[in-house]
Amino acid sequence: MTSLAVSRRRANGWAGGLLRACEFVAYPALAGAAFCVLCLGVVTWLPALAALAESLRRWRSDGDAACFTGVFAAFPRMWRALWRHALVSTVVYLVLALNAVFLAGQGSIGAVALLGAQVGIGVALVPYHLALAAVAATDHNAGPAGWRRAALLLAFGRPSRGLGLLAVAVLAPVVTVFIPLGPLLLGSSLPVLYALALTKGARS
Length: 204
Description:
Shape: globular
Number of helices: 8
Distance between the termini: 46 Å
Oligomer: single chain
Largest sheet: none
Structural class: mainly alpha
Strand content: under 5%
Number of strands: 0
């Protein structure tokens, strides 16, 4: 009887671990689905990213499993705070893309150097916006100006943090390609989870 009880406890342990593993995929995927819906507004992507971070933070910190609806619930507040920043960032990305397309068709050394600069700026904005979303989700009182300062410090205060954020943003769609719709649903959630972890580590 003792060995049977131990076996049952082990089975429950494995089952619990499996359920937790499934949750770690399912909840970020649900939050990522809500993020994709909100991104249909084009300039809504940055407030949606911050709302995604807020929903995932509540899940990880408070056990709130309403990750899908949590993104929609957090979006109005993030939109009011970040819509101007989202508009500026969208215009910047559009200008960088147009410049890159134009410069790619040129053959001069100067054009190649300028193309590299456009790509470098675009790449640097990735960890910054991830950090901004995480900071907005974890510090509700600082406001947009405080969020920007904290995001710059989080993303670029240490090279390892910025490179880590960029690496996760690049690798997340790659490692989730074998999951149905994985790059679409988890390509944003996993980098945001990493950004939240960095934010927590920076404050501890």
